[in-house]
Amino acid sequence: MSDPPRHAAEPPLAEDLHSTTRQRAVERGQHATRRARMWLTPGMGIKRWLLLFVACTLVGAVGFLHFTWTGPLHFTATRWILYLNALTSPEIMPLHVVGMGVMAAALVGAFFSIAMLNRSVLRGVGTLPETAMDTIYARRHLSRGLRVVAVGGGTGLSNLLSGLRPHTAHTTAIVTVSDDGGSSGRLRESLDMIAPGDLTDCYAALSDSPVMARLLLHRFRRGDGIQGHTFGNLMLATLSEEEGGLAEAMQDIHEVLRIRGHVFPATTAPATLVAHLSDGRTVRGESKFAPSVGSARILSVTLDPPDLPALPSVLEAIGSAEQLVLGPGSLFTSIIPGLLVPDIAQAIRASAAPLIYVASLMTEPGETDGLSLDDHVQAIFRHLGRAPDCVLVNSDLLPPEVAQRYAAAGAHVLDLNGAPQALHSCALRVPLLHPGHEARHDPAALAQALLTLAPRRRPQNQPG
Prior knowledge:
The protein has two domains: 94 residues, no CATH class; 308 residues, Rossmann fold (3-Layer(aba) Sandwich), CATH 3.40.50. A seven-stranded parallel beta sheet has the order 3-2-1-7-8-9-10, with helices on both faces. A three-stranded antiparallel beta sheet has the order 5-4-6. The N terminus and C terminus are likely disordered. By secondary structure, it is of the alpha/beta class. Helix 10 packs across helix 11. It contains 19 helices and ten strands. The longest helix has 30 residues.
């Protein structure tokens, strides 16, 4: 049997190529549409100057016409008009329409020249023209966004930050730095520094540089001494060593990584998290909680040493916040440790901003076994001295296979079943589940829920 002709196998490949081309064209169109909408966003300080440019151009055109028609260029202007008249017949196109066409072409040329001039200037100062609009949008529109302060750690806090990033430039993350396991634990032990792992995740979530965000999370799979470390952890360790601590390197970090908002450690001093169990035991080091708790429960956690300093920038952010958010994240190892820094706890208690607790989706084996949602809220109250004003609770149902897998590992859904009336009255049930095979919050849905709870503000006029 002879081989089939080659062209018989080509149509599917050609079809795939055409499909890819069409998809890229659609993506380019969507990108152009998004950028056009960004240009037209209220408060950008762009439209008013474009309108002024058009108005001045038209006035200038009228002035030039007056000059040429009444001055020494009258003969030249007359010849120009006669030349345009000769190009078309008044029956086909009225003479004034020809003039409008010439004027429109001149205006388009003027806009094009300004755009090219801007590109040359931006490239001359080291800014990519493609990113200039994003920068203007971030500084103009997002600068009027909600002032949110979020306390927590782990992947939960970084998910929240990535959801808030498109909506505001005033997000401040206060990150728990008591982790003593993995890469963070090794760096803490070697350099006597705070744990950098959760800071790295948060910096990546708020970075305006996609390249840096990707590099920060890169984990070395080989290499003597660096295997298991992330690039971000090593970078923070380097800055801490170079500057004599991360507190002195905060400004450099935010500038280098182009952070949209701020990320601060809850404290700049190394501390050990200590769990106090129901059977009277204490466990030092959060990495030892899960394997050591056993059948007991964690009643409370403390930091050693207890009197830890907080950065002034952290306290200023809390004082000016319009919304304080706890979580999402592990109750005893991500959320509460940040509340154990005395100055932070005092600032939150004194703040008039609403305190919102984003409830975990599941209990965590070895940490919150057997605790109800009300138990979580009561634990926050005991450690902080202030109860949440609102509790965000997921209303989506977990897919059965996901719920079964988590149940097999000892984790169960946290919901309002059996909760007291006081919790029901302050709880808000909204769909927050990220689609997929893991029980985690959807960043966009979570950000939208927080923005819905934001206090109404009078619009502020932006200069220029």
